[in-house]
Amino acid sequence: MTDLEPIDPETAIDLYLTDRDSEVTAATLQSHRSRLGHFVRWCDQQGIENLNELTGRKMHEYRLWRREEGELSPASEKTQMDTIRVFIRWLEQIDGVEPDLHTKVRSPMLDDGDNVRDVMLEEARAEALLDHLEKYEYATRPHVIMALLWHTMMRVGAVRALDIEDYDEDEQFLSVEHRPESDTPIKNKERGERLVALSEEVCAVLDDWIEMRRPDVTDEYGRNPLVTTPQGRVHLTTLRGDCYRWTRPCIVTGTCPHGRDTDRCDALEYDQAFKCPSSVSPHAVRRGGITYALNSEWPTKAVGDRANVSEAVLDEHYDRRTKHEKVEQRRQYLENI
Predict the structure, then answer these.
(1) Helix 74-93 vs helix 26-46: angle between axes, to the nearest 10 degrees?
(2) 21 falls in which pLDDT band (50, 70, 90)?
(3) In the sheet where 167-168 sits, what is the strand order?
(4) DSSP one-letter string for 120-187
(5) 64-76 pLDDT, tens digit each
(6) Kind of pairing, strands 167-168 and 173-176?
(7) 228: part of which helix (H) or strand (E)?
(8) Alpha-carbon span 44 to 199, nearest angstrom
């Protein structure tokens, strides 16, 4: 039997994240840190100060606790438990838990479609929101963020990574680059680098943002971020927060589609906008922009290249067109048969 070496949850997770630092992107590392933070809370509630005590039964209890405490969907539960399994397997290598414990960490099997999220910002809402920003918040940070997310279909990390020098106002495009050495990695790394063409309308917003509204600051690496706050390059949490805040329907319409009191709703608080059932994340805006492009008969490859996503992933995770919409679009090719 293996002699286990005592290790507490916090120390184990710090060592694990340090070990993985050179293997995964900063975004993946942050995701693991967040998911494992729930495990630390559970250990604290259970009085587990030494991970040598973990058993298959305890891991099953954690799975049930996390499912109920987080109100997780099957897809979210799988993501959580898959991360735990990787962590437990790592612990086995340093004699922190019993051998093969990771084989007892279970996660749900997903049926077709269970891992696909359908939430997106619909075209009508996006147009109404952008019109509202154009009229009342022209060339402000939220206007710039929402215009970029919708029209370019970029991931939020790519928007954060942009510098002023990445914007070519004459040729009307943005250059998306992977710069992990100065804290702006992008998903897919060098494979995610690309030029993204812009419309005249989006260029006008960027031009006026840079000239009139953008806080004139550099980041800690001496770079000139395109999207800034008075403190420097915008944080991902700020980008996500702006997205949740400005996709609350009451901001545009003045009324709540959920029957809530618009004077007392919890989601009206600056940092609680995500509590609105209709507010959406940047990823949902991206998904909506992709679906809008596909509905506008953009070639799938062109959408994939612009959004930096493969056609297979595009079809499974982003294309929210109905079967009827797809068949009507295919009908145009009948005359060529």
Answers:
(1) 90
(2) confident
(3) 167-168, 173-176, 194-197
(4) ---HHHHHHHHHHHHHHSTTSHHHHHHHHHHHH---HHHHHH-BGGGEETTTTEEEE--BGGGTB--T
(5) 888 877 667 677 7
(6) antiparallel
(7) strand 228-229
(8) 53
Based on the number of CB atoms within 10 Å of its own CB, is 259 exposed (0-12), middle (13-18) or buried (19 or more)?
exposed
- Give mean pLDDT, residues 115-123: 70
SS3 content of the chain, % helix, strand, coil (to 5): 60, 5, 35
Query: Do 9-104 and 123-289 have matching folds?
Result: no
Q: Name beta bridge partners: 197.
A: 173
Q: Which two tokens stand for residue 189?
A: 């790394």
Residue 114 has pLDDT above 60, yes or no: no
CA distance 153 to 73: 26
The DSSP letter of residue 109 is P
Count, residues in the chain: 337
Distance of CA 146 to the CA centre of its chain: 14
Residue extents of the structural domains in the chain: 9-104, 123-289
* CATH number, span 9-104: 1.10.150.130
pLDDT reading at 103 higher than 50 = yes
Structure-block tokens of residue 112: 């077709």
Residue 23 structure tokens: 């293997």
Please write the tens of the pLDDT for every residue from 197-238: 999 999 999 999 999 999 999 999 999 999 999 999 999 989
Contacts of 284 (CB under 8 A, 6+ apart): 117, 119, 120, 121, 247
> What is the residue type of 143?
H
The domain 123-289 having CATH identifier 2.40.30.60: the answer here is no
Q: Are 178 and 190 in contact (CB under 8 A)?
A: yes
